[in-house]
Specification:
The chain has six helices and eleven strands. It is of the alpha/beta class and 220 residues long. The strands form two sheets. Strands 1, 2, 3, 4, 5, 6, 7, 8 and 11 form a nine-stranded mixed β-sheet that branches.
Length: 220
């Protein structure tokens, strides 16, 4: 299909192979935007036929948009390196009418810790819009938690598999990394946080995840 997959990476040698092979089942072009990895991410990607663009990290939205001007196709499938398409997602995309440029497509996402699929606390269905036409839609230029906007969103039933965390220690590590990234993004926007405001927000987040979204281990 005439779809370009765009994948952002930083030291993803453990994930990039499966991600690219998954995308190649429905994409005739794969572009990797690498944030100056120091492992074998770039070599693996190039060995699989992907085009690699090296770019220091610009923030979530700008980094995910970086490859779009280089794409030969109008249709863009955006993936993170630790994601891959489930078979139901591949079949669903193959049957889409991509002549309708003003529609973007959202998929259900399964998030995993190791081999365990996490269903509670808002982790499922975790819908994400990832297939869009670059003439009518694209990522917002936000440095943290960007999303695709433009066109009307069609909610599909296929799944993206997200190898979110290797284990619970990795989960804790990623929380620290992402909180640092988000703090950087807010600082760049001129926003400042106070200790007085942090505690209430943390307590509300705990309440929402634990009670409103039933974030118990038995619900996983």
């Amino acid at each position: 299909m005439q779809i370009t997959a765009t994948i952002i990476t930083l030291n993803e040698e453990a994930n990039i192979r499966d991600c690219i092979k998954s995308a190649q089942k429905i994409c005739d072009e794969v572009i990797v935007v690498d944030s100056l990895s120091t492992d074998n991410t770039v070599e693996i990607a190039e060995s699989l036929g992907a085009r690699v663009l090296k770019q220091a990290y610009l923030g979530d939205g700008p980094q995910k948009s970086f490859a779009v001007p280089y794409a030969k196709n109008d249709w863009i499938l955006s993936l993170d390196a630790d994601e891959r398409l489930d078979n139901d997602c591949i079949d669903e995309i193959r049957n889409l009418d991509l002549s309708l440029a003003d529609i973007t497509y959202a998929f259900r996402r399964k998030n995993f810790v190791g081999d365990k699929w996490i269903k509670a606390a808002g982790f499922y269905p975790d819908r994400v819009t990832r297939l869009y036409n670059k003439q009518t839609a694209g990522y917002l230029p936000l440095k943290a938690h960007s999303k695709v906007v433009g066109g009307s969103v069609a909610q599909l039933n296929g799944h993206i598999l997200h190898r979110t965390y290797d284990d619970y220690r990795h989960w804790e590590q990623r929380i620290n990394e992402l909180s640092t990234r988000d703090a950087w993004a807010k600082y760049e926007q001129g926003k400042r946080c106070s200790e007085a405001g942090a505690a209430p927000r943390a307590l509300f987040a705990l309440f929402k995840k634990l009670f409103l979204k039933r974030g118990t281990y038995s619900g996983c």
